């Protein structure tokens, strides 16, 4: 599933790289901001988004440092300024908080869910986990490049093919996901 740690390339980003400590945005609430000075922002009233001439505005959203897997294809990563990532969560943490019950963790491990990609435990670097395709988003490539030392795993060719197949199922949904209900 993974390359050996000695085979990991630390100067290039690849599809299937797993990185720790990446800021992952949580878009459950957005607060619009107005820039008062170089280092100061104020909260803007709900209906006044104060966009600049490019249609851009400053916002504040929650963020957490999270492990992520790169889902953009390697050739796209080389050409684009943004990279799509998916957060990674420990299966045990979801079992402990009651999200995974009634054998759902077994379904993840058997790859029977289209929205979660199973990442098996590997030599103390990662415990049994899954990548959550339902909350993927783009991140500027520079943020990942600044954290290259946080790369802990890279999927092998076999693992990357499974990731591609899972992404195709998630985006194309060729079969009903009867297991997640």
Indicate the proportion of strand residues. 25-35%
Total beta strand runs: 8
Q: Kindly identify the CATH topology.
A: SH3 type barrels
- The total tally of domains equals 1
- CATH classification, class level: Mainly Beta
Largest sheet: 8 strands, antiparallel
Q: What fraction, in percent, of the residue positions are helical?
A: 10-25%
Number of H- or I-type helical stretches: 5
Coarse shape: globular
Overall structural class, as computed from helix and strand content, comes to alpha+beta
Q: In sequence order, what are the helices and strands, one letter per element? A: EEEHEHHEEEHEH
TL;DR?
The chain has 181 residues and is α+β, with helices and mostly antiparallel strands. It is 22% helix and 35% strand.
Summarize the structure in words.
- This protein has one domain (5-25, 66-172): SH3 type barrels (Roll), CATH 2.30.30.110.
- The radius of gyration is 18 Å and the shape is globular.
- Helix content is 22%, strand content 35%.
- Strands 1, 2, 3, 4, 5, 6, 7 and 8 form an 8-stranded antiparallel beta sheet that branches.
- It has 5 helices and 8 strands; from the N terminus they run βββαβααβββαβα.
- It has 181 residues and is α+β, with helices and mostly antiparallel strands.
- The mean pLDDT is 89.
- A hairpin with a 2-residue loop joins strand 1 and strand 2 (40-43).
- It has helices at residues 74-79, 91-96, 104-109, 141-145, 157-172; strands at residues 17-37, 40-43, 58-70, 82-90, 116-119, 129-132, 137-140, 151-154.
